[in-house]
Amino acid sequence: MEPNSCQEPVSTATEFLADPELAREIEKRSEPWEPDPEGVLFRQGDLPTALYFVKSGEVALGMETENRLVMCVRAGAGSLVGLPAVVSSKPYSMTAAPCAGAEISKIGSEEFKALIASDPALALKALQTLAAEVRLARRCCMDLIS
């Protein structure tokens, strides 16, 4: 998946939205994301290095299997991108590419883990975002088989 290649997403997802308190704490500790030559936040299969916060605009997320796009969503302003990989220390399961004009910040994986380990209320808020992502993935699976 290349930047902006997710032209017709399955869903513009609200499931990635961070609780306002969690978003504030992440913003305090984050730094602006600077695009690399590929223009993606991360690729499916990469090891997690950071959690990304969408300050404005959208990020397209796509999951591929056998060179076929099987899931495509967009995460809007206020969303956390890469949360499952960062929390589990497993590779990113999707490729994330910012849409034109998006403003993104990032917090390192270990710094994010230290943040939620220090505050159980923030950890619960992160868990609620993960639960919403699970519900979205299940809906997308149902769409694929129906």
Describe the structure.
- The protein has a single domain (11-139), classed as Jelly Rolls.
- It is built from four helices and eight strands; from the N terminus they run βαβββββαββαα.
- It has helices at residues 20-29, 83-88, 109-118, 120-145; strands at 11-13, 31-32, 50-56, 59-65, 68-75, 80-81, 95-98, 103-108.
- The strands form two sheets. It has a four-stranded mixed beta sheet.
What's the gist of this structure?
Helix content is 36%, strand content 27%.
Strand tally? 8
Order of helices and strands: EHEEEEEHEEHH
**Average pLDDT level:** 87
The oligomerization state is: single chain
Cα-atom radius of gyration: 14 Å
Number of helical segments? 4
Q: Which parts are unreliable, with pLDDT below 50 for 5 consecutive residues or more?
A: none
Main structural class: alpha+beta
Topology, element by element:
Layout (H helix, E strand, L loop, with lengths): L10 E3 L6 H10 L1 E2 L17 E7 L2 E7 L2 E8 L4 E2 L1 H6 L6 E4 L4 E6 H10 L1 H26 L1
Comma- or semicolon-separated keywords:
about 150 residues; alpha+beta; Jelly Rolls; 4-stranded mixed sheet; 4-stranded antiparallel sheet; 4 helices; about 35% helix
